[in-house]
Amino acid sequence: MSRLSERETWRVLAAVKQIMTAAKLTTVAAARLSSLPQPTISRLLTRPPRRLQWRVLERLLNLDPAFKWGFVVLHPRAKEAVETWKAWIGTSAEIPGTMRLLERISGSRGWRAVQDFRRWAIERGHHPRRVNTGIRLALSRLMRQPQTAGIEREWGELSLNEKDRYLVSAMNCERIILDRASEHERVVQSFPVRPWSKLRVARAPRNAEKPRAYRSGMVDMDVERARQSAASRQLVASLSPKRRLKKRD
After folding, report:
1. Could you tell me the pTM of the whole model?
2. Residues 97, 42 within the same domain
3. Sorting pLDDT into bands at 50, 70 and 90, what band is 111?
4. 136 shares a domain with 39
5. Is the predicted pLDDT of residue 92 greater than 80, yes or no?
6. Measured distance CA(16)–CA(4) in Å, rounded
7. CB atoms < 10 A from the CB of 223, how many?
8. Domain with 48 in it: what CATH number?
Protein backbone atom coordinates (compact mmCIF):
# COMPACT_ATOMS: atom_id res chain seq x y z
CA MET A 1 0.00 0.00 0.00
CA SER A 2 3.04 2.26 -0.29
CA ARG A 3 2.57 3.46 -3.88
CA LEU A 4 -0.14 3.75 -6.51
CA SER A 5 0.13 2.36 -10.00
CA GLU A 6 1.09 4.66 -12.87
CA ARG A 7 -2.47 4.73 -14.18
CA GLU A 8 -3.89 5.56 -10.77
CA THR A 9 -1.28 8.26 -10.29
CA TRP A 10 -2.28 9.87 -13.59
CA ARG A 11 -5.96 9.78 -12.61
CA VAL A 12 -5.35 11.24 -9.15
CA LEU A 13 -3.25 14.12 -10.44
CA ALA A 14 -5.82 14.85 -13.17
CA ALA A 15 -8.50 15.00 -10.47
CA VAL A 16 -6.32 17.28 -8.33
CA LYS A 17 -5.87 19.71 -11.23
CA GLN A 18 -9.60 19.63 -11.92
CA ILE A 19 -10.43 20.38 -8.28
CA MET A 20 -7.90 23.18 -8.00
CA THR A 21 -9.12 24.75 -11.25
CA ALA A 22 -12.79 24.55 -10.29
CA ALA A 23 -12.19 25.98 -6.80
CA LYS A 24 -9.51 28.44 -8.01
CA LEU A 25 -7.05 27.13 -5.44
CA THR A 26 -3.47 28.32 -5.42
CA THR A 27 -0.68 25.99 -4.44
CA VAL A 28 -0.51 27.76 -1.09
CA ALA A 29 -4.21 27.18 -0.44
CA ALA A 30 -3.94 23.58 -1.61
CA ALA A 31 -1.01 23.04 0.72
CA ARG A 32 -3.02 24.42 3.62
CA LEU A 33 -5.98 22.14 2.89
CA SER A 34 -3.95 19.00 2.28
CA SER A 35 -1.31 19.54 5.00
CA LEU A 36 1.36 19.02 2.37
CA PRO A 37 4.29 21.40 1.82
CA GLN A 38 3.68 23.98 -0.88
CA PRO A 39 6.75 22.85 -2.88
CA THR A 40 5.31 19.33 -2.93
CA ILE A 41 2.06 20.61 -4.47
CA SER A 42 3.97 22.56 -7.10
CA ARG A 43 6.15 19.57 -7.91
CA LEU A 44 3.09 17.32 -8.32
CA LEU A 45 1.61 19.74 -10.85
CA THR A 46 4.76 20.44 -12.84
CA ARG A 47 6.92 17.31 -12.44
CA PRO A 48 4.57 14.54 -11.34
CA PRO A 49 6.08 11.25 -10.18
CA ARG A 50 5.46 8.00 -12.01
CA ARG A 51 3.90 6.38 -8.95
CA LEU A 52 2.38 8.47 -6.18
CA GLN A 53 2.90 7.52 -2.56
CA TRP A 54 -0.21 6.44 -0.68
CA ARG A 55 0.41 8.80 2.24
CA VAL A 56 0.52 11.71 -0.22
CA LEU A 57 -2.76 10.56 -1.74
CA GLU A 58 -4.47 10.49 1.67
CA ARG A 59 -3.58 14.14 2.15
CA LEU A 60 -4.63 15.13 -1.36
CA LEU A 61 -8.10 13.75 -0.65
CA ASN A 62 -8.61 16.67 1.75
CA LEU A 63 -8.70 19.05 -1.19
CA ASP A 64 -12.28 17.90 -1.77
CA PRO A 65 -13.46 15.04 0.49
CA ALA A 66 -16.84 15.04 -1.30
CA PHE A 67 -15.17 14.20 -4.61
CA LYS A 68 -15.86 10.63 -5.80
CA TRP A 69 -12.31 9.41 -5.30
CA GLY A 70 -13.51 5.81 -5.46
CA PHE A 71 -13.88 6.18 -9.22
CA VAL A 72 -10.28 7.39 -9.48
CA VAL A 73 -8.37 5.01 -7.22
CA LEU A 74 -9.21 1.85 -5.29
CA HIS A 75 -8.12 0.86 -1.83
CA PRO A 76 -5.65 -2.08 -1.88
CA ARG A 77 -8.17 -4.25 -0.05
CA ALA A 78 -10.76 -3.32 -2.68
CA LYS A 79 -8.37 -4.51 -5.39
CA GLU A 80 -7.99 -7.84 -3.61
CA ALA A 81 -11.78 -8.15 -3.39
CA VAL A 82 -12.13 -7.46 -7.11
CA GLU A 83 -9.56 -10.12 -7.99
CA THR A 84 -11.34 -12.65 -5.77
CA TRP A 85 -14.65 -11.76 -7.39
CA LYS A 86 -13.18 -12.12 -10.89
CA ALA A 87 -11.85 -15.56 -9.99
CA TRP A 88 -15.37 -16.57 -8.95
CA ILE A 89 -16.76 -15.17 -12.20
CA GLY A 90 -14.23 -17.24 -14.11
CA THR A 91 -15.60 -20.47 -12.67
CA SER A 92 -18.91 -19.96 -14.52
CA ALA A 93 -17.07 -19.64 -17.82
CA GLU A 94 -15.87 -23.22 -17.31
CA ILE A 95 -19.45 -24.55 -17.58
CA PRO A 96 -19.64 -25.70 -21.22
CA GLY A 97 -22.78 -25.91 -23.28
CA THR A 98 -24.98 -23.66 -21.16
CA MET A 99 -25.57 -20.96 -23.73
CA ARG A 100 -26.26 -23.48 -26.48
CA LEU A 101 -29.32 -24.64 -24.59
CA LEU A 102 -30.89 -21.21 -25.10
CA GLU A 103 -30.31 -21.32 -28.84
CA ARG A 104 -32.58 -24.35 -29.08
CA ILE A 105 -35.55 -22.43 -27.68
CA SER A 106 -34.90 -19.10 -29.41
CA GLY A 107 -38.00 -16.91 -29.47
CA SER A 108 -39.81 -18.74 -26.68
CA ARG A 109 -41.14 -17.14 -23.50
CA GLY A 110 -38.18 -18.43 -21.48
CA TRP A 111 -35.70 -17.13 -24.06
CA ARG A 112 -37.32 -13.67 -23.92
CA ALA A 113 -37.13 -13.74 -20.10
CA VAL A 114 -33.37 -14.31 -20.33
CA GLN A 115 -32.92 -11.46 -22.83
CA ASP A 116 -35.02 -9.12 -20.69
CA PHE A 117 -32.93 -9.99 -17.65
CA ARG A 118 -29.71 -9.36 -19.59
CA ARG A 119 -30.84 -5.87 -20.68
CA TRP A 120 -32.14 -5.03 -17.20
CA ALA A 121 -28.90 -6.03 -15.46
CA ILE A 122 -26.61 -4.21 -17.89
CA GLU A 123 -28.72 -1.05 -17.63
CA ARG A 124 -28.22 -1.18 -13.85
CA GLY A 125 -24.46 -1.08 -14.38
CA HIS A 126 -23.59 -4.73 -13.83
CA HIS A 127 -20.65 -6.17 -15.71
CA PRO A 128 -21.67 -8.34 -18.71
CA ARG A 129 -19.56 -11.21 -17.34
CA ARG A 130 -21.54 -11.11 -14.11
CA VAL A 131 -24.80 -11.15 -16.08
CA ASN A 132 -23.67 -14.19 -18.06
CA THR A 133 -22.64 -15.84 -14.81
CA GLY A 134 -26.19 -15.61 -13.50
CA ILE A 135 -27.57 -17.10 -16.72
CA ARG A 136 -25.01 -19.91 -16.80
CA LEU A 137 -25.59 -20.83 -13.16
CA ALA A 138 -29.36 -20.98 -13.75
CA LEU A 139 -28.97 -23.21 -16.81
CA SER A 140 -26.30 -25.44 -15.28
CA ARG A 141 -28.84 -26.60 -12.72
CA LEU A 142 -30.59 -28.58 -15.47
CA MET A 143 -27.51 -29.88 -17.27
CA ARG A 144 -26.54 -33.52 -17.05
CA GLN A 145 -24.48 -34.11 -13.92
CA PRO A 146 -22.65 -37.42 -13.39
CA GLN A 147 -23.14 -37.05 -9.65
CA THR A 148 -26.93 -37.38 -10.00
CA ALA A 149 -26.65 -40.78 -11.73
CA GLY A 150 -29.56 -39.86 -14.00
CA ILE A 151 -32.07 -39.61 -11.15
CA GLU A 152 -32.60 -35.86 -11.32
CA ARG A 153 -34.51 -34.34 -14.21
CA GLU A 154 -32.43 -32.80 -16.98
CA TRP A 155 -32.96 -30.14 -19.64
CA GLY A 156 -33.88 -32.64 -22.33
CA GLU A 157 -36.63 -34.16 -20.19
CA LEU A 158 -38.52 -30.91 -19.77
CA SER A 159 -41.27 -29.79 -22.09
CA LEU A 160 -41.09 -26.37 -23.72
CA ASN A 161 -43.69 -25.07 -21.27
CA GLU A 162 -41.64 -26.36 -18.32
CA LYS A 163 -38.48 -24.79 -19.71
CA ASP A 164 -40.26 -21.46 -20.07
CA ARG A 165 -41.59 -21.64 -16.51
CA TYR A 166 -38.17 -22.56 -15.15
CA LEU A 167 -36.33 -19.79 -16.99
CA VAL A 168 -38.88 -17.14 -16.01
CA SER A 169 -38.57 -18.16 -12.35
CA ALA A 170 -34.76 -18.41 -12.53
CA MET A 171 -34.41 -14.97 -14.07
CA ASN A 172 -36.69 -13.51 -11.40
CA CYS A 173 -34.38 -15.03 -8.78
CA GLU A 174 -31.37 -13.47 -10.49
CA ARG A 175 -33.12 -10.11 -10.50
CA ILE A 176 -33.46 -10.37 -6.72
CA ILE A 177 -29.75 -11.19 -6.35
CA LEU A 178 -28.62 -8.38 -8.62
CA ASP A 179 -31.01 -5.80 -7.20
CA ARG A 180 -28.03 -3.94 -5.75
CA ALA A 181 -25.45 -1.38 -6.71
CA SER A 182 -22.89 -2.18 -9.39
CA GLU A 183 -19.83 -4.25 -8.57
CA HIS A 184 -17.58 -1.19 -8.51
CA GLU A 185 -19.89 0.76 -6.22
CA ARG A 186 -20.19 -2.20 -3.85
CA VAL A 187 -16.44 -2.63 -3.49
CA VAL A 188 -15.94 1.13 -3.04
CA GLN A 189 -18.58 1.17 -0.29
CA SER A 190 -16.95 -1.79 1.45
CA PHE A 191 -13.38 -0.45 1.23
CA PRO A 192 -13.52 3.35 0.90
CA VAL A 193 -10.46 5.52 0.39
CA ARG A 194 -10.39 7.77 3.43
CA PRO A 195 -8.56 11.13 3.62
CA TRP A 196 -5.80 11.70 6.11
CA SER A 197 -7.08 13.24 9.34
CA LYS A 198 -5.23 15.63 11.58
CA LEU A 199 -7.07 14.22 14.57
CA ARG A 200 -4.73 12.03 16.55
CA VAL A 201 -4.98 10.68 20.06
CA ALA A 202 -2.70 12.97 22.03
CA ARG A 203 -0.26 11.18 24.29
CA ALA A 204 0.79 12.85 27.50
CA PRO A 205 4.55 13.39 27.77
CA ARG A 206 6.43 11.24 30.24
CA ASN A 207 7.23 14.19 32.48
CA ALA A 208 3.64 15.46 32.47
CA GLU A 209 1.98 15.89 35.85
CA LYS A 210 -0.46 13.08 36.58
CA PRO A 211 -3.91 13.63 38.13
CA ARG A 212 -4.15 13.93 41.89
CA ALA A 213 -6.25 10.79 42.29
CA TYR A 214 -3.71 8.87 40.25
CA ARG A 215 -0.85 10.19 42.38
CA SER A 216 -2.64 9.32 45.63
CA GLY A 217 -3.36 5.85 44.31
CA MET A 218 0.28 5.38 43.45
CA VAL A 219 1.31 6.57 46.92
CA ASP A 220 -1.11 4.15 48.58
CA MET A 221 0.21 1.37 46.38
CA ASP A 222 3.81 2.20 47.27
CA VAL A 223 3.01 2.21 51.00
CA GLU A 224 1.28 -1.17 50.71
CA ARG A 225 4.22 -2.62 48.83
CA ALA A 226 6.65 -1.32 51.46
CA ARG A 227 4.54 -2.82 54.26
CA GLN A 228 4.34 -6.16 52.54
CA SER A 229 8.07 -6.12 51.86
CA ALA A 230 8.87 -5.46 55.54
CA ALA A 231 6.55 -8.24 56.67
CA SER A 232 8.11 -10.60 54.16
CA ARG A 233 11.59 -9.83 55.41
CA GLN A 234 10.57 -10.48 59.01
CA LEU A 235 8.99 -13.79 58.03
CA VAL A 236 12.07 -14.94 56.13
CA ALA A 237 14.32 -13.91 59.01
CA SER A 238 12.25 -15.89 61.50
CA LEU A 239 12.53 -19.00 59.33
CA SER A 240 16.26 -18.74 58.69
CA PRO A 241 18.44 -21.63 60.08
CA LYS A 242 20.62 -19.35 62.22
CA ARG A 243 17.60 -18.00 64.14
CA ARG A 244 16.31 -21.53 64.78
CA LEU A 245 19.72 -22.69 66.13
CA LYS A 246 19.87 -19.72 68.50
CA LYS A 247 16.41 -20.48 69.85
CA ARG A 248 17.37 -24.13 70.58
CA ASP A 249 20.49 -23.05 72.50
Report:
1. 0.63
2. no
3. very high
4. no
5. no
6. 15
7. 10
8. 1.10.260
